[in-house]
Amino acid sequence: MKLECVEVVHVEIPLVSPFRTSFGTMTTKDTFLLRVVTDTGEGWSEFAADPQPLYCSEFVAGAEIVLRDFLVPRVAALPSSEAALVGPAVAGIKGHELAKAALETAVLDAELRSYGMPLAVYLGAVRDRVPAGVSVGIKGSVAELLDDVARYLDEGYVRIKLKIEPGWDVEPVRAVRERFGAELPLQVDANTAYTLADAEHLRRLDEFGLLLIEEPLEEDDLYGHARLQSRIATRVCLDESLHSARDTASAIAMDACRVVNVKPARVGGYLEARRIHDVAHAHGVPVWCGGMLETGIGRAPNLALAALPGFTLPGDTSASSRYFAEDITEPFVLDDGHLPVPRTPGIGVVPLPDVLRRFTRARRDLYRG
Questions:
Q1: Which of 66, 86, 135, 328 could be a cystine partner for 161, CB 3.0 to 4.6 Å?
Q2: What values do phi and psi take at 17, rounded to 5?
Q3: 263: annotated active-site residue
Q4: Is 138 exposed, middle or buried (0-12, 13-18, 19+ CB in 10 A)?
Q5: Beta 159-163 vs 133-136: how paired, if at all?
């Protein structure tokens, strides 16, 4: 398989409502899709980060440059561009995991389509549908939060995740528990908003029986998370701190996390994500699949990953309607709290041409062989 063309398709899609976290508020999904054409077919992927480097160091314009000038030329120079060779080919470029993930995923999609093999089969999925949780952003009031949670539960979501930050943590969690009961699977995500000095405050969350607290401290602070875990009963889950299977093994050994959130884009792609799953599963550590407000192009392969055996907690694999009035693929629709795992070749979806055309802001070739 040989690369013939790599194209960036910049899209901007309105969100159905603003999504606020500790690092900012999003009103649109503003990113690019990567389209790869090989001598055997076509593949698609989605760059997961945003126009500004707020969630992570990568951002849309920077990723395009890295792909054009450094990553794509290395893969194009390979005698054969199979997905398993992409990681080793770009390993000499430091960082830029999200850009690497976009390239590897598009190549993998094209490759699997040529074999007629679904990504779920390739990864080793054991389920044909996965339970869907929903991430609820920081709201202007507790009343607004409760209304949103009630609506999502009415829609059938089986787990609620609340974004938290200093000043918006104990009281919102208490309100949700009091309104919806102790049986509701509930977790919180701090997006690195706290420090170890907040340990006593965070321990107040223990009374609410949370599934986990996600990434409370600065990313890559495994020691700090281990110290925090020793002082609170709620299980610490790491997200931004884990970039590889090696990081995951270290974190588990240090007791810096008792749950792992795998975001394939953040770790360089689905092949490394599967390795992270394997490490955590071998140690009996629960795994779940995080989300980054993906369109259907990013959501479909996440569902395939979330169907692996170690994914025992509901992920952020929400229905398309959670974020978009109109997705760029056929929409993913919640059914009895679950979403179907795509079973057609590759990632299982393609952009709808007319919808993609409406949301496209620019198209640029990064490579033509």
A1: 135
A2: -155, 155
A3: yes
A4: buried
A5: parallel
Task: Calculate the CA 60 to chain-centre distance.
Answer: 16
Tens digits of residue pLDDT in 145-160: 999 999 999 999 999 9
- Report pLDDT digits (tens) over 4-34: 999 999 999 999 988 888 778 889 999 999 9
Phi then psi dihedrals of residue 44, to 5 deg: -130, 155
Q: What is the mean pLDDT of residues 64-75?
A: 98
Q: Please pick, among 29, 100, 139, 163, the residue that the annotation labels catalytic.
A: 163
User: With contact defined as beta carbons under 8 Å apart, do 109 and 347 qualify?
Assistant: yes
The closest alpha carbon to 126, from 306, 337, 322, 338, belongs to 306
Which band of pLDDT confidence, cut at 50, 70 and 90, is reported for residue 98?
very high
Annotated active-site residue in 100, 139, 161, 263: 263
Please give the DSSP secondary-structure letter assigned to residue 283.
T
Bridge-based pairing of strands 42-46 and 236-238 is: unpaired
Task: Based on the residue annotation, tell me whether 139 is a catalytic residue of this protein.
Answer: no
Q: How far is CA 306 from CA 49, 128, 195, 196, in A?
A: 20, 10, 30, 31
Query: Which H or E run includes 30?
Result: strand 24-38
- Three-class SS string for 321-349? HHCCCCCCCCCCCCECCEEECCCCCECCC
How would you class 25 by CB atoms within 10 Å of its CB: exposed for 0-12, middle for 13-18, buried for 19 or more? exposed
| pTM for this predicted structure | 0.95
Amino acid at 245: A
d(CA 114, CA 104) in angstroms, rounded, equals 15
